[in-house]
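Hi L.,

As promised, Aspartokinase:
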Amino acid sequence: MGLVVQKYGGSSVADAEGIKRVAKRIVDAKKNGHQVVVVVSAMGDTTDELIDLAEQVSPIPAGREFDMLLTAGERISMALLAMAIKNLGHEAQSFTGSQAGVITDSVHNKARIIDVTPGRIRTALDEGNIAIVAGFQGVSQDKKDITTLGRGGSDTTAVALAAALDAEVCEIYTDVDGVFTADPRVVKKARKIDWISFEDMLELASSGSKVLLHRCVEYARRYNIPIHVRSSFSGLQGTWVSNEPRGDRKVEQAIISGVAHDTSEAKITVVGVPDKPGEAAAIFRTIANAEINIDMVVQNVSAASTGLTDISFTLPKTEGRKAIDALEKQKDAIGFESLRYDDQIGKISLVGAGMKTNPGVTASFFEALSDAGVNIELISTSEIRISVVTRADDVNEAVRAVHTAFGLDSDSAEAVVYGGTGR
């Protein structure tokens, strides 16, 4: 038996009973002959509570101290889990991200992993121990400051450790039984997917599916680490995410893998932009210099009478104020007339590698939205994805309509959401 990395989200270790249930699952893996490394998130809503506390003390907390505060949640979880494992008669050692050798850049609150040097983890495993690692955190390469990895950081920690330790698999335990064709909180008849390719999972993750985060899947694809998404609340087989189906199973990839949605974005429209070379570059260089990631971009055809056009793009709501301020400072240099901000939007995405070889998918997608009375504001496509922006109030209805239109509804019992947070 080889080495297995297991990751448990906040809903799995939300209380003492949850921690003891997770400890038993870990010990069972050890008894089956595996070397086990565990990455754990903060308990329940601990991280959100710490964020709220920080904002009460300081409206704009310093990045370094904010990271120092947020990493406390995972340290609590890892220590309690190690205690629970020892009560079951097995040795466990807990490690912070820095002790585990997770080396990052110096960008606080959303650091990126540069390297993993898991010497202490290997030593613990060689001594027969179970290693428990605090997720979501690392240490900066230059200043040796504690850093956090941002949203989905514990998933990324787990895959990075699996790659560094040459693990057989990275098991991601959450509060649903695997990856579904849509969010089971919105679509009660969503079907569990037995296997999905890295490419399709990347598109679902980047389009709003919260069961796995984009950075985690990207890392796994780069190092070819199979991911097994499972529930910590049941013993059911979950979803394999990999280049090829596991073992001898032959799984034909579906035309459509699933429908994802996202209501965490906002839309900015730059009104009255001179339609000449360099204008779009100046707008998006301003956004890039503010360290803001954007998603969809649409430029209208310029008006013949004025020679002006509008450029719209979507970005995280949390970055909206910063983007508006950055563009306003460059208004005279760029030469646009005004800015419009809209945070009441939602994105619906249809994902599937089979789309590019099956005519009619695009037509069926738009017909489903039309029949549901959903108006489209922006459209973006790739070879395996179609995304549209609609009103936020229309998102749930749109997801259900598209899911049904493409025959993704399950005939069996409704999907179970055990924890309720999605992590």
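The longest strand covers residues 265-274.

Thanks again for sending the construct details.

K.
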